[in-house]
Structures
1.
Amino acid sequence: MAKTILPYIISGISVGGQYALIAIGYTMVYGILRLINFAHGDVFMVAGLMMVYMAASMPLYIAIPLMIVLTVLLGFLIERVAYRPLRTAPRMSVMISAIGVSYLIQNLALYITGGLNKNYPTIPWISDRVTVFGMETSRVTIITPFLTIILVVLLVQLINHTKIGMAMRAVSLNFETSQLMGIRINNVISATFIIGTFLAAVGSMLFFTNYPGVVPTSGAMPGLKAFVAAVFGGIGSIPGAVIGAFIIGIAESLIKGLDTILIVQGTISEQIGFATFSDAFTFILLIIVLVFKPTGLFGEKTTDKV
Amino acid sequence: MLEVKDLHVSYGGIRALRGVNLEVPDGKIVTLIGANGAGKSTMLRTISGLVKAESGSVLYNGKELIGMPINKILEEGIAMVPEGRRVFTNLTVLENLKIGAYLRNDKAGIQKDIEWVYELFPRLQERSWQMAGTLSGGEQQMLAVGRALMSRPKLMMMDEPSLGLAPLVVKGIFDIIREINRQGVTVLLIEQNANMALKTADLAYVLETGEITLQGSGAELLTNEAIKKAYLGE
């Protein structure tokens, strides 16, 4: 029994880690701008595509850092061009701008790739097959959760113990008072986008290694799942987004394996097709969270003493 | 010295300030009193750079502040204690003080000033590690003042420091204002609590619907019949 479930849990933790790296970008941007950055999933996809094209023309040890730098630059530019001019506009306008950027990126990707599936390059070492607990998997599955946790710990240190981190927390509470302290909020917001896209770029490497390829809509589903994870954990909260992502990753993976698990257990005798519902589960979860606990697991309370 | 000359400011069609002239001499406590909506807050927000002026000028030691970014105005030595205190409730008391010194890089100096603020407000030291959101209203006001002092201002502007505080606490705040002034910081104070403000101030201005209607020493205005009627409730 345990032997049947374990592989699904391990792969779930791994997928959860990948979602977490994307979810942090959503939750940090929301924390500061109260904006759901719909383009974030597409930036993640672009990171995948850039890797495809660059790995074809240069060695990986140049392609990987270059891909990360260019993705970060893209995230930075999106904020500069599409969100910053709307800083004093109603929040809805910024959100519509974000949706526009999302479609623009998807369509540009469609134009460039012709809509064809682009094979993701094999990154040596992390794509190697390894055997853990008697199951065979690629090394990236094992590395992902550890790498995720290391990055999250570093990020939390940055936010809680550095000057820029302190400024981020201040800006997330109140723009105007932060400005009175001499903080240039635009710089802080840029820093937030840079961190968020950096994590998404790393996440894209881990994610696409396990998938056959990248298409222009590749960012949509993981982006949505990560967004649900951020809402589930309480949007605005980094630990919340990470825990939410792991829960969703594991649950999804278990549902995918539910047929096999139940057959081994002897509850059912043939495939029922639970796996089809693994995506649906995530969104049912979103609805349940929004109905019963809209602030999520660690969401900010609205009862601030003023 | 801060000199405001013929300052006009509009807010979405409403003319909040209509040609205001005032002076804040170095080393003094100057107060600006007036009813709700007279334009007092607009005045401070314009000086600190949060609000754009339509015309006129704000000179600080001869330098034009209008058009200067907020952080540069702070670097010139003008700090503000905003209305409603606006401490960072999600930061600790100590972090609130540190963020007040955001533009400074002299670690030793900052540490010394934290101790100076703790000396002025021993309560803050006791609560150094608490989240600022857990402080009482009076303590938050102390923290807001301490935070402004951390930028080592030459001029501190305060927007309604007595708002929503118990009379005893208000008295404590005004004692502190005098103490800070004695230590060399010029103070520009906005108040609805005209009685307290006039007793504390060296120089006072009365602002009514965007215009200065009266000015004089605090003591003079305290005995002015019109002021007594309109602002002191006598």
2.
Amino acid sequence: MEDLGFNIEEALGLHRVIDEDGNVVGEEPKVSGEKLLEMYVFMVRARILDEWILKLQRAGKVALHAPNRGQEAAAVGAAFALDKDDWLFPSYRELGAYLVRGLSEEEIIDRAIANVDDPLKGSEFAVYGNRKYNVVPAPVPVGSHIPLAVGAAIAAKIMGHKTVVMAIFGDGATSRGDFHSGLNFAGVFKAPVVLVIQNNQYAISLHVSRQTAARTLALKGAAYGVPGVRVDGNDVLAVFSAASKAVERARSGGGPTLIEALTYRVGPHTTADDPGRYRLQDEAKAFEKLDPIDRYRKYLINKGLLSELEDKRIWEEWSLKVEDVVKRCFNKPPLPPEVILHNVYSKPGWNLLEQMRELRESLRLIEELGLEVE
Amino acid sequence: MPVVNMVQALNSALREEMRRDPRVVVLGEDVGRRGGVFLVTEGLIDEFGPERVIDTPLTEAGIVGVATGMAMYGLKPVAEIQFIDFIYEAFDQIVTNLSKLRRRTGGMYSAPVVVRGPCCGGVKGGMFHSQSNESYFVHTSGLIVLMPSRPYDAKGLLKEAIRGEDPVIFLEPKILYRTIKEEVPEGDYTVPIGEARLVKEGSDATIVTWGAMVYQALETAKLAESKHGWSVEIIDLRTLFPFDKDSIIKSLEKTGRLVVVHEAPKTLGLGAEIAAYVAENAIELLKAPIVRVAGFDAPFPLVHERLYMPNVARIYMGLSKVMSY
């Protein structure tokens, strides 16, 4: 058959490095034991942070949270393949990726509770990012950041930089026009971009089998001349290997790659969702057995890179650290009301100046009349 | 009569219309087994099956475009946009096809689609779950735009919208979904499009408003009455386009003072059109300049949303302005 420049086996298969019991079943990435352990710590930190934000949401301190549980490998493995100067356009379920890029737990919780140190100044819930780490905060309408990532990558190419851009998004986003136009531009302009589909198999209630009639999501690259690779998204080494290859390819002028990381959303879509309405409890239970952290821990122990004792220490250390961080974040004051009119333009126009006066006058009146507004 | 909330009222409107007319179908993200994220379509799939209650892939452009095609062919689709803030992907379909179909085909085709979804703020929804974007649709000729403020109107207007021959953007203030309950008749009735509702009679000033702001206006009227004895009339527009100009003028004949209150950003909000209409056609009735109290000209915030949206303090400031002129 004619060479299509598209390896259909890679798009239909499921690349794995370690199985559920941590046994090696594929080619291990050539990185130091230290790096391998670092990835593990990021996954643990993501799990601990996720649980904290969930707890704070239930206590009414966080508006909304999209739980990450069970998807730590996909986020950490993908982001771990990037260099410091590379750019990441994540979605809203990638705590591990933000941590890998350098965001701290403190900054993430500041953001989640929107206190005075919230880098996004109380603009939106459930999204994180900081220019300092080349992590671009996501727009909530899913997939609309895909063309942005492709555009940034094309710009890097035009400007002669070696920067690689990665976007992460979910299976649902592949139905949006933005996915298709982004992928098309990426192919046409050989953009140095890595598009990672975190296929957790659910867009709220819709299973991926109803999202697309295609056999796999990685296959969608074929129509755009973009190589597609499908990996086990609960296998951090498989995700990291595929992402590293894609980043390398992009950096050396080889163009874009579409990676499908097959994982599973163990929890609800967000804290406002109730999966009991549309899927069986047993299904989620079955997937808990594929927990990416357990599996990677077994691998590291088998390799002699981690002991049970050391593992326990890591969990305890980070649990305590995050507990302290949460306390610290809650000691900070809230954002002042004026922020709601900031950053609309580079400089506020006359209308916003007028409205700032109106806002301040209303604050005075609220106090004067003792009104309960907020 | 059963006492129901807005979600239940909307659900019964859909159910009754689907029973009445086999051409009515519902489509959107998670509208099937999930029943929609706010449960407006709860249980419909059990009664009408997945051919008439259609869970779609995640694409608003697809949902509205496909609904338009379905309507052209003869169905009566009700398309749910999960949050109205997500409608922009479908904007091309709405502006290019849905709204212009009748005109651009010389009247040969039409697309009586109802595009409905939760709108507006007050639930700590942040920038992308709180928008009041009615102006885009009011500005697009060919669309009818509705926004109920209570369960009775929600049911009656949705039924009227489904039975109509023109495309409708049906905006549901999500903060009212479960907070307001009232008696709503079981079975058939409709609320006519184009008729405002007189919420409260008054003689000193008129507040024209819609959606959840009706309740802020009522609270402010109470405050103004107790503090100054001002008698405030409140009109709930319900139909944002074509809005009920006659009710506004009739009220101004009595009060001569107009405050328009809306959550949407002030600049080019529907308040601007109402103010312009009154200025063009009834300026002689006015005893004071028209005042608009609106959302600020900034994206909807996650923090301090009650300060961003018109609140009692700001509406009171607006009333004071027209009363002290």
